[in-house]
């Protein structure tokens, strides 16, 4: 994520004006979430709740990587190394990078998986709910890899990230301590999460977690030195 001043506020304003148009219902639908006594019947309220709860959801129990190992699903990448600095090719253009999504490959898929989702999340962003860099849903179950910089195969959808852009946007945090970036693949029970492409990545992340049979994560880091 970049220096947050303008983009964060723009994204927040966009989230708060969200409408029902980006959800069309599924077995893990936003409409079912609205019926929860803990969520108001408003997409904008759901977005705010998801953004605020994301760090707690992602940190609950064991770390994502430990949970993934227990569940069997494995995520590998020729471009990412657990705990290491992400290469410039995958960093945002705003930080002088190539802004290419890294190559990803997954295996040991849980029985009953009907589709996959991919998310990239920065839990260290100076916002209440972290920062979503990428969300892809409805990847066909036959898909077990994505090439570097490649568009996901149809009928997969890339959703709106927290830069208010569709697709992948690489790291570009404010100068200071490096941020962590969690690349996660989700094995889902549903064939499709029926979200419009304008849906915020935060909602996709919450719906993927609710529908997951398993997930696997590679966490990398990136930072800018203080000037």
Automatic annotation (TrEMBL):
Pfam families given in the database record: PBP
Region (Disordered), start-end ranges: 1-21
Name of this protein: YbhB/YbcL family Raf kinase inhibitor-like protein
InterPro entries listed in its UniProt record: PEBP (IPR008914), PEBP-like_sf (IPR036610), YbhB_YbcL/LppC-like (IPR005247)
Organism expressing this protein natively: Lysobacter enzymogenes
Gene3D superfamilies referenced in this protein's UniProt entry, alphabetically: PEBP-like
């Amino acid at each position: 994520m970049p220096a947050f001043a303008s983009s964060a506020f723009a994204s927040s304003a966009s989230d708060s004006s969200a409408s029902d148009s980006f959800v069309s219902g599924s077995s893990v639908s936003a409409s079912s979430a609205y019926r929860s006594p803990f969520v108001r019947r408003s997409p904008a309220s759901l977005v705010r709740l998801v953004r605020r709860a994301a760090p707690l959801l992602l940190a609950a129990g064991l770390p994502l990587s430990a949970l993934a190992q227990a569940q069997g699903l494995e995520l590998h990448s020729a471009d990412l190394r657990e705990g290491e600095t992400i290469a410039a090719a995958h960093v945002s253009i705003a930080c002088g990078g190539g802004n290419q999504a890294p190559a990803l490959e997954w295996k040991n898929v849980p029985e009953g998986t009907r589709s996959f989702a991919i998310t990239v999340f920065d839990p260290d962003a100076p916002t209440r709910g972290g920062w979503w860099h990428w969300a892809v849903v409805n990847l066909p179950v036959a898909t077990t890899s994505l090439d570097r910089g490649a568009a996901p195969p149809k009928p997969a959808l890339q959703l709106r990230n927290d830069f208010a852009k569709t697709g992948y946007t690489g790291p570009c945090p404010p100068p200071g301590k490096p941020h962590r970036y969690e690349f996660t693949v989700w094995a889902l029970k549903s064939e499709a999460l029926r979200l419009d492409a304008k849906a915020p990545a935060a909602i996709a992340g919450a719906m993927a977690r609710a529908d997951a049979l398993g997930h696997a994560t590679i966490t990398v880091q990136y930072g800018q030195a203080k000037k």
